[in-house]
Each structure stands twice: as structure tokens, then as C-alpha cells.
Design a protein that fits this description.
Elements lengths: L8 E6 L4 H12 L3 E6 L6 H12 L5 E5 L5 H15 L3 E7 L18 H10 L3 H13 L22 H24 L3 E10 L12 H20 L5 E8 L5 H4 L4 H11 L8 H11 L11 E4 L11
Helix pairs in contact: 1-2, 1-10, 3-6, 6-7
């Protein structure tokens, strides 16, 4: 595949070992973009991760990787000094904030779920409630999204609830940390004269999913910070936008309690009848890095196949 980026261009990806970050790295690498990847992974996961990084290097580009805490200002400053020395006269054309580190606790204990529908159906069919529930759960887990309302509801901790510290850490990790990175890169003169900053949000920015309060707050904070970056850093050639993927099968999604229900809901209302894929979002990251996207600034761009606007269940 022909190169579309100059050899002096680099992308810095925060959270690049899986999900959106890794898919974006692969897309950019296939078009000649050099990569700087921050990730935070345990030793046991490094075998798979190193294979993925090797595949990126096989595209004929440079890849710098740091298994380090991107949320620590001390680590950030130390690594940026190393990066500046390595880049020489090269510059960072794209910064992608794809950090998925948040708290997924409820704010308060749930009351018992209403199982009257299952009980009424079991009575009508003259079978045991447990037998009907088991059958509904099995068929639902096999991909029958229409059984979502009959399937067993997600279970959450009945003793651990969201605390102020949980909220503050999540908002910093998945939201406001974007600004610190932009300031630090800009302060060292490492941004290209035409550079792009991208953050990632979700539909949880406007609707409430159970257990998602802290992450939702972080996403709203990120969007606010991104708008400020778009205005205040524009004179320096920096464009900042936020992408809103639809529900996507990623390691981060699998950590959300009730993710099977979220996926079923998304598939049932998406006009294309499928989940968003990390590669769908990577394609948009690539497009936003193009010269033709230079006049897009301060925008929230949905990458969901129409999931957000659809009021129709398939």
C-alpha cells in the first residue's frame, strides 16, 4: 500500500495496545505514519502485545513503545524528553487519546429486578420459572438479541459503590489528562505546524447506563477540554476533535457489567444491524489526519453507522 504520510510524521497514541488505539495504529502504520505508543499492561499480556507491535514495524515504519503510566505527569515528562531526543527534527502530527481506565461501580444499591413478565410467561406455558429463565438466557447468549428483556438482568456489586475518589480518578484518566498531554507536547515544540488531536467519547455522554456514571462524567469533561483546545491552540496549527464510536467490541467494553445487554441494544437499533468495529473508528482517525480535514476543528463526530440517530429496532 502506498505511503500517504511523510516519513517525518509521527502519531502518539495513548492506550495503543488494544481496541481503538491498536486498530488506529495499524491503520496509520499501513499508510506510513511512524508511531509512539503508550500502554499499561501486565507482563503476562506482553507476548500477544509484542506480536502486534512487531506487525506494525513490519509496515516499514518506526515504532516506539512505552509500557508506562501515561497518567503520571512525571512519567509523561520523562518519556517526552526521550521522545524529543529520538525525533530530532521530526514532529508529532497526530495525538490520539484512547485511555480506557475508569470505575464502573453503581452509585447506589439496586432494588430487586421486576421478574413479573418471566413469571407470567412461565405460568402461561405451564413450566417452571427457573427453566424458562435458563432457556431465555441460553438463547440470548447465543445471539438472539430480541430476548434481551427476558434475559437475566446484569448483576452489580451490592457492597461497593462509586466514591468521590473513584470519580476524580476516572475523570482525570479518561478526560482531563488530554489537556496535560497537549500542553506538554506543545511546550516542547513537538507538534507539527498542522497537527491533529483526537479524543474518544461515547453515547454515555448524554444517556445514563448503569455503572457508567464515572466514565460518563469523564467523557463529558474530555469533550469540554477538547473544545477549549480547539479554540486556544488553533493559532499554533493544532486542530482538536472528538470521535464518538457506537458500541464496540473492545476489552474496555467487556469490563462493563451488562455489556451483553448493551451490545444487544446497539445491534437492534443500528441501521446496519451490527456493532461498530475498532477498524471503523481507525478509518476515521486516518481520515482526520489527512490535509483535507484541516478545517474540521472543535467537532464531535459520530462513527456509529447511524446508531445514535436510529429510533427503529430491527
Amino acid at each position: 500500500m502506498p505511503q500517504t504520510f511523510p516519513k517525518t510524521n509521527w502519531a502518539l497514541i495513548l492506550g495503543g495496545s488494544s481496541g481503538f488505539g491498536l486498530a488506529s495504529a495499524a491503520k496509520l502504520a499501513s499508510h506510513g505514519m511512524n508511531l509512539i505508543i503508550f500502554h499499561r499492561d501486565r507482563r503476562g499480556a506482553m507476548g500477544r502485545i509484542e506480536e502486534d507491535f512487531a506487525a506494525l514495524r513490519n509496515e516499514g515504519i518506526e515504532v516506539l513503545t512505552f509500557n508506562a503510566d501515561a497518567l503520571s505527569s512525571e512519567v509523561r515528562d520523562e518519556k517526552l524528553n526521550e521522545i524529543a531526543e529520538h525525533l530530532g527534527d521530526d514532529r508529532i502530527h497526530l495525538l490520539l487519546h484512547s485511555i480506557a481506565f475508569g470505575n464502573l461501580k453503581l452509585s447506589v444499591a439496586e432494588k430487586p429486578a421486576d421478574d413479573s413478565a418471566v413469571c407470567a410467561l412461565a405460568e402461561r406455558l405451564d413450566i417452571e420459572v427457573e427453566k424458562l429463565q435458563t432457556a431465555a438466557d441460553e438463547v440470548f447468549s447465543g445471539g438472539a438479541d430480541r430476548l434481551q428483556l427476558l434475559a437475566t438482568p446484569p448483576k452489580y456489586s451490592a457492597t461497593l459503590f462509586l466514591e468521590e475518589e473513584d470519580l476524580a480518578r476516572t475523570i482525570h484518566a479518561m478526560g482531563t489528562s488530554l489537556l496535560g498531554w497537549v500542553q506538554a507536547i506543545h511546550g516542547r515544540g513537538l507538534f507539527a505546524t498542522d497537527s491533529r488531536v483526537l479524543g474518544l467519547t461515547s453515547e454515555g455522554n448524554t444517556i445514563a447506563w448503569k455503572g457508567y456514571a464515572a466514565v460518563a462524567a469523564a467523557k463529558v469533561a474530555l469533550e469540554s477540554v477538547a473544545r477549549s483546545i480547539a479554540v486556544e491552540f488553533a493559532p499554533y496549527g493544532i486542530r482538536c476533535n472528538v470521535l464518538q464510536p457506537g458500541v464496540t467490541e473492545t476489552p474496555a467494553l467487556r469490563l462493563i457489567p451488562g455489556n451483553a445487554h448493551l451490545k444487544a441494544e446497539a445491534r437492534s437499533k443500528n441501521p446496519f444491524g451490527r456493532l461498530t468495529q475498532p477498524e471503523d473508528v481507525a478509518d476515521m482517525v486516518y481520515l482526520m489526519a489527512q490535509p483535507e480535514a484541516a478545517w474540521v476543528n472543535g467537532a464531535l463526530i459520530r462513527v456509529d453507522g447511524g446508531e445514535h440517530v436510529s429510533g427503529v429496532r430491527q
